[in-house]
Amino acid sequence: LQILGNVSEFQRVVNVLQEGVDFDIDVNASVFETNIRVVGGLLSAHLLSKKAGIEVEVGWPCSGPLLRMAEEAARKLLPAFQTPTGMPYGTVNLLHGVNPGETPVTCTAGIGTFIVEFATLSHLTGDPVFEDVARKALKALWKNRSDIGLVGNHIDVLTAKWVAQDAGIGAGVDSYFEYLVKGAILLQDKELMSMFLEYNKAIKNYTKFDDWYLWVQMYKGTVSMPVFQSLEAYWPGLQSLIGDVDNAMRTFLNYYTVWKQFGGLPEFYNIPQGYTVDKREGYPLRPELIESAMYLYRATRDPTLLELGRDAVESIEKISKVDCGFATIKDLRDHRLDNRMESFFLAETVKYLYLLFDPDNFIHNDGSVFDVVLTPYGECVLNAGGYIFNTEAHPIDPAALHCCRKRKEEQWEVEDLMREFYLLKKNKKFALKRAADHGEGESAKDPEDAPSEKGGEMRNSKKSSHSLLSCPSQSFNSKLAVLGQVFLDNN
């Protein structure tokens, strides 16, 4: 609705959310799914609400009803992270926390897919707890990788023992790698990108065969499943984000041949046999290959990618369209349908198709246009592009993360103080007169002593940071006192 510009409908949805959402309910919820769908969706809608024509409250984007709802939902997930390893349980009860009998086994993606939403939430609200738990979970997975640099499929979050030791880029692992890259871009974080690049080396060394990616044993690197999963089709798009476009295109073309063979991507595809895997012949209208096409087209403008988009539209229209929507394809061999439509079809598949064919959409902004908004911390630039999509395709504006930090406010105050200091320095008579007015005229008579004496005067005033920033003879500790807060050497 945001992308299509349906303002009235978007406003209606916002009003319904404000009136009827209650997270204090006795329901067991997936921590992973609640984060990417509910928290991510609310954050994205919050950040795009002004652009969608909604009248926002004073202080936006640092406040707002959708942001408060996102925070409330995320707080319901925090008990899941209270484990010895910092890796979360897979399920949490929204009213009571983690159930006593909850299984400690969680998939890798269910542990490593929080940094985009939780860091955004921390930056907008000023509460670091969300980003902290997401980072701790990421580092726990990194710490427990195998000696050859791979992670398995499922792990015990209490003991950090790997329960499923198949390593690959697909189901159960996929969005962990995705969030290392997207988190690194969103936060300009070298550590997260370094983690991914190390994983990428191991993945190329042990799982890549002729531009396909197989499943291997995480400790030995021996092939365990020579299959391609439809969920793996996000990988070329991820490669394009780190600039590895040539490899991305070769892998994408492999996946595209499978699409053309069946009119969609089967859940599992046996690479040596070149055919579907038993009981995995379905296609629930997943978005991953179209997602990669959109990213790669932005990087290359290769018309082959538009051909995939056209094929996808034609296949979906011809095979899966029914009276009430678009049905999951139960079996790609004969195109039998199932009586269901997955939510990600609308949230992701259609959205990525739309963006693939809409080159002028604001999402593709290259920074040449932007909006300036006034926040409690000063002016802030928004909507300049570079949007990061969470794994449910909810776009996050990375510029918003710099709008609501107290550190930003302090930075501006320090800059104002420095400008004032240099202005006073140009007019020594004015500076000396100020010192004399405060009963320190004798010391101020000596121009060489004036700075330190002026510093003494200012230390006794409410605006002590003037002199603390300006006096060259002060200790290292004192120089780092800003706005009354002292940062010590060992801090």
Overview in brief:
By secondary structure, the protein is α+β, with helices and mostly antiparallel strands. The strands form 10 sheets. The chain has a 3-stranded antiparallel sheet. The protein has a 3-stranded antiparallel sheet with strand order 6-9-10, with no helix packed on it. Residues 435-472 are annotated as: Disordered.
Secondary structure tally, helices: 19
Q: Please state roughly what percent of the residues sit in beta strands, choosing from under 5%, 5-15%, 15-25%, 25-35%, 35-45% or over 45%.
A: 5-15%
Neighbour order of strands in the largest sheet: 3-4-5
Q: Low-confidence spans: pLDDT under 50, at least 5 residues?
A: 429-491
What overall form do the CA principal axes indicate?
globular
Tally of extended strands? 23
How would you summarize the topology of this molecule?
Blueprint: H1 7-20, E1 28-30, H2 31-48, H3 65-77, E2 91-93, E3 105-107, H4 108-112, H5 115-125, H6 129-143, E4 154-156, E5 162-164, E6 166-167, H7 174-187, H8 190-206, E7 208-209, E8 212-213, E9 215-217, E10 223-225, E11 227-229, H9 235-241, H10 245-262, E12 268-270, E13 275-276, H11 288-300, H12 303-320, E14 321-322, E15 325-326, E16 329-331, E17 336-337, H13 343-356, E18 371-375, E19 378-382, E20 388-389, E21 395-396, H14 406-426, H15 428-437, H16 441-444, H17 450-459, H18 465-470, H19 476-479, E22 481-482, E23 485-486
Antiparallel strand pairs: 1-2, 3-4, 4-5, 6-9, 7-8, 9-10, 11-12, 12-13, 14-15, 16-17, 18-19, 20-21, 22-23
Helix pairs in contact: 2-3, 2-5, 3-5, 5-6, 7-8, 9-10, 9-11, 10-11, 11-12, 11-13, 15-17
